Structure formats: C-alpha cells, structure tokens
Hints:
12 helices, 302 residues
Amino acid sequence: MSTRARHVSALVVLGVGWTWFYNGGNFLAFKIGGKAFEPLMLAALRFGSASLIILPVAIWRSRRHPASRRELAAAALLGAIMLIGSQTMAIMGTHLLPAGVASVFGSAAPVFLALFTWAFLHKPPDRRQIAGVSLGIIGLGTMAWLSWAGAGFRPIGAIMTLTASATWAGGSVVAARLRMPKDPVIGLTAQLVPTSIVLGLSVWLAGLTAAFDPAAVPLRAWGSLAFLVIASTLIGYAVFLSLNRQVTPILANSFNYVAPVIALCLSAWFLGEQVGWGKAGAAGMTLTGVALMIGDRRSQAA
C-alpha cells in the first residue's frame, strides 16, 4: 500500500469513528443542553449559530458555484423537514426521556425508510428488509415496555423521538426527488438560514427569551451547545458528505446502529442512567434490525 493510500485509509477510519462519536454524543448534548436552555431554544441556538458561522463561507463559494432559486428553495424545504421536523423534534423528545433510551428510538430511521419506500415508491421489502423491520419494531416495543415505569420516561417523548426518526426517513425519500445546490456548503446554508429564522421566531413567540438568563446557564450546557454547533452540525456534516463519496453506504451510515451504543454508555457515565440487561437486549434487537436495513442498501448499491 502506498503512502497516499495509507493516508486516505487513516482519514476514512477517523471519519467513520467521528460519525459514530458525534451521533452518539448528540443525545447526551440534547439532554444536558435541553435542561438549561429549553429544547426549542437549544435547537434555535444550535442552527442559528451554525448558520452565522457558515453563511460567509457560502457567500464566498457562491461566486464560483452559484445555485438557482429553485435549488435554494428545495434546500430550504429539506431543512424544514430534516432540521425542524426531525432534529428539533428529537431534541424535544430527548428532553422527556433518558438520553440512552432516546438514542435507540432515534436510530429507527432506516426501519421507517424501508416502510416508506414500500408505501410510497411501491418497492416491496425483500426477506432481509422484512427481518430488519420486524426486529426493529419488536426491539422498540420492548424498549418502551421496559422503560415505561422508569425514572425520566414519558411516553410522549418516545412518540416524539420516533416521529423524528420517521420524519428523517421521509426527508430522505423527498431529498432524492429534489434538485439541490451542487455545492454542499451552499446547500447546508440554504437549509440552516430559513430553519434558524423559523426557530428564532418560535422562541420569541413562545416567550422563552424573556425568561432566559445566560449567566444562569452552567458551563457544561454551553459546552453541549458548542458540541452541537461545531462537532455535529458543521464538522459532522462535512465528514459525512466526504465519507459518502469514498466508502460504501453501510460504512457511511453505520452510525445508525453504533451511535446508540455510544449514547447508552455516555448517558450511563455522565448522567448515571441505568441500562440493565433487558434494555441492552432490546437495544441490541433494534440495532440489529437497523443494521439489516443499512446492509440491504449496500447490496442494492453494489
């Protein structure tokens, strides 16, 4: 193997590891930040800060890679689905659940994607998909049943987190039919800016700004926000885009079944959340189903 090939391989390993870590860390950050800022404000600060950072870069890049109004509108629509309908909903749902449990529900997007592909694109599932969907549903149901009477679990939180997963899956189906900006930085900025405006107005109308005291926010909550802005929204997006161009879909999307394991460990360590063998088994069942979904996408892409 040449020096260049070894360098590329090392970057791929680092990139895959980063997608695992930041997607798992997201749920811990959702939980810590949501308590200090309120979930809706956390989402507004996350995407608003990211848009302010990336907007000058996007304006500079637009001189060489201009996007049409139609492409910008498509990106804005996708941002409403993925960032408001999914990510903001996930932040709000995690606020009502243990972070580790929320991460398992949040990993169900591939299961919903298979169901939506069947229902709307008329592509019936094969045996592998049926097995994955079945395992995923059984695992999610078991996790909800075992967590029902536990501390910090509210059923509406599970519904919201599952809705976030379903919305992400629906957005993935819609994205395949949208004409997006060719430049990924411009595309992300076109998603972030309208999303930030909508969330900012929502925070203002809800009266959350009047009661907000920055001095009362603990340092680790500010750290959670910084993690979501930089590590997750900006760096994480760029790393994932790069991986999508260099590796197989199963490797690029492996965070769907690895990140919840990381989230369960982080929440047990930092928040003292109890997992137990029953929940661990339910999580393993769900994540096996997700792995089958991702593995099927790889075989289709081959």
